[in-house]
Amino acid sequence: MGDEGWIRSASSLRYLREEVKRGDLFLCYEVDRKQAVGVARAASDGRDAGLGSLVDFCPPREAVRLESPLTRKPDLDHILAFSPQRGRGTVQKIDADEFRRLRSIMLRKNPGQARQLRRLLGG
């Protein structure tokens, strides 16, 4: 995922380096369109800047590109990671209770992808 030139936030770099583990889920967000367009798993632990990509992702066939992306408003309003209170970091942790609601919204908006999403997200 990018490199140290792509992610400039010190908190994001620290989070990737110290907390991201293989198997963690990533919500793929398009800033320009303000929507979540997919979900992927980390295929590696996070790494220090200067070592190339900061984290590797699963192959595209294992990720899910949402047929109906989640929009910033109203779908992602409840997620603290998308709020001004959390800051402007590129990589943010989503709390378990927020993730359960997010999972429910993804499934409701993408019923044709329910099987793929459940496989990736669990449950």
Concise synopsis of the structure shown:
By secondary structure, the protein is α+β, with helices and mostly antiparallel strands.
Low-confidence segments, ≥5 residues, pLDDT <50?
Answer: none
Number of domains: 1
Task: Tell me roughly what share of residues is in helical segments.
Answer: 25-40%
How large, in whole angstroms, is the Cα Rg? Answer: 14 Å
| Helix/sheet category | alpha+beta
Give the integer mean of the pLDDT values.
Answer: 85
Number of strands: 3
Order of helices and strands: HEEEHH
Number of helices: 3
CATH architecture: Roll
Measured between the Cα atoms of the first and last residue, the distance is 27 Å
Write down the overall geometry: globular
Largest sheet: 3 strands, antiparallel
Q: What is the CATH class designation?
A: Alpha Beta
Please report which band the strand proportion falls in: under 5%, 5-15%, 15-25%, 25-35%, 35-45% or over 45%.
15-25%
Strand order of the largest sheet: 1-2-3
